[in-house]
Design brief:
The chain has about 450 residues and is α/β, with parallel strands linked by helices. It has 16 helices and 17 strands. The radius of gyration is 22 Å and the shape is globular.
Length: about 450
């Protein structure tokens, strides 16, 4: 494909700034930028309208799994397009959604048997919250006091009203707090900046003690607990120590609270197993999936649950009940066909097995980067990493927000042909699972250089 000329690119940039409202973007600042306009992708690379090549270091915002233009997924979408692009699941079934539901049930813990499709991570979470709430009304009656939820500090679960209510990060929720329902909050183990003022591992995961105190006091009013297993993405790739997730599952069972695992970001191999919950042998009551479910090709999400929750919506022969929730594109055949092809690639290429050496290299490179005097913490689970830059390693003092330090470092990386993004002063590295060892080494070499150049 021939690259477009600079005149065409300039026209696109002008039109973008005239008409496109970008997500999570301060548009006044955007108008002063010179943005990249991506035209195509191939493998682990993106290409702009002038033909410049960029290594996709964030999987196009955490969704691309096997790289861009994966022929097996492209072929599956094209084949499905020849049959039908969309058919509703309201009163009808369709072939790809049925086949995908069976695949997902086979992949996830045995107890999870029912799949409700939607189209993004926020809706997958919203569905789980409504299911959990409704379940206790069925079990205990409409006067049930189990109507509240508990989540964790630093959580992000999406941008719909329910998802924001169980999230916490101020920039996403503060302006809408009057719209939101109140949620109880327990400390998530951000070990680099511990909220309970202790040190791991001598603390013996003291966050769990705080969590249990809340459950002990409020369990009779709690419908569910929602958690990002192993890694909090939007908090800056905050990585929980091994044992925390298992402890949360143990305590939610003890106090009879449903557990919702939000694996929108951590699912499909990102942490080194197909799902993060596998690493601690945890089976949630509800599992939320999106992002990597189609390999990053089309919007699709799934909320997977067990028979006890499913049966709460059946009612009786005299008074049948239903889950009155749905989306126009629920179970879209094109999205489901892409997801089926994505799963087949995992199987055929033994993706989980083959990423293990990359994960080991990833950790080595993170450790080496940690020697940089401006890197306070370099944390990861699998191929999800956050590199937190600080003014002082000793004091962990942060740079002034107005300096936009990590953002400047990421801009420097883009000039070097590598796309990554910051969250605050944490630089996010989350490449496709198809990343090569040479490409990983390049990312870290250039990141170290950019840190030095920006902070020199």
């Amino acid at each position: 494909m021939k690259s477009k000329n600079k005149t065409y690119t300039a026209k696109l940039k002008k039109l973008d700034k005239t008409h496109v409202w970008h997500p999570f973007t301060r548009m006044l600042e955007w108008e002063a930028t010179d943005p990249l306009i991506i035209e195509r992708g191939k493998g682990n690379y993106l290409f702009d309208t002038e033909g410049k090549k960029y290594l996709d270091g964030i999987s196009s915002l955490w969704v691309t799994v096997h790289g861009h233009g994966k022929k097996e997924i492209d072929r599956a979408i094209n084949n499905q397009l020849k049959k039908i692009s969309h058919s509703t699941l309201l009163g009808l079934g369709n072939v790809p959604s049925i086949e995908l539901a069976k695949e997902l049930v086979d992949m996830t813990p045995r107890a999870l048997t029912r799949v409700f499709f939607s189209d993004n991570g926020s809706t997958a979470v919203e569905i789980a919250l409504k299911m959990a709430y409704h379940f206790w009304q069925y079990k205990l009656g409409t006067r049930s006091k189990k109507t509240k939820f508990i989540s964790f500090t630093g959580e992000y679960h999406g941008d719909t009203i329910g998802a924001m209510s169980v999230g916490e990060i101020d920039v996403f929720v503060k302006r809408y707090e009057k719209l939101l329902f109140k949620t109880l909050r327990a400390p998530y183990p951000y070990c680099y900046r511990c909220q309970v003022k202790k040190e791991y591992p001598s603390c013996k995961i003291a966050c769990l003690d705080e969590f249990e105190k809340i459950l002990k006091k409020h369990h009779k009013e709690l419908a569910g607990c929602i958690i990002e297993p192993l890694v909090q993405g939007a908090a800056g790739m905050v990585c929980a120590p091994i044992g925390f997730l298992k402890g949360v599952r143990r305590l939610t069972k003890k106090y009879n609270v449903l557990l919702i695992a939000d694996e929108v970001a951590t699912g499909f191999g990102r942490t080194g197993t197909m799902f993060a919950s596998e690493q601690e042998k945890v089976t949630p009551d509800l599992l939320c999936l999106a992002k990597g479910i189609t390999g990053g090709y089309l919007p699709l999400a799934a909320t997977i649950t067990d028979e006890k929750i499913y049966k709460a919506f059946l009612g009786s022969k005299k008074e049948p009940d239903a889950f009155y929730h749905g989306h126009t594109y629920t179970g879209n055949p094109l999205g489901c066909a892409a997801a089926l092809a994505n799963i087949n690639v995992f199987k055929k290429e033994k993706t989980i097995k083959n990423i293990q050496p990359k994960i080991r290299l990833f950790r080595v490179l993170l450790d080496k980067l940690s020697d940089n005097k401006f890197v306070g913490d370099a944390r990861n689970h699998g191929l999800m990493a956050g590199v937190e830059v600080v003014m002082s390693k000793k004091t962990k003092k942060q740079f002034p927000i107005k300096d936009k330090t990590a953002r400047k470092i990421c801009e420097s990386m883009s000039y070097k042909g590598i796309i990554i993004r910051p969250i605050g002063d944490t630089i996010i590295i989350m490449p496709p699972l198809s990343i090569t060892a040479a490409e990983l080494k390049r990312i870290f070499k250039e990141l170290n250089n950019s840190i030095e150049e920006v902070l020199a």
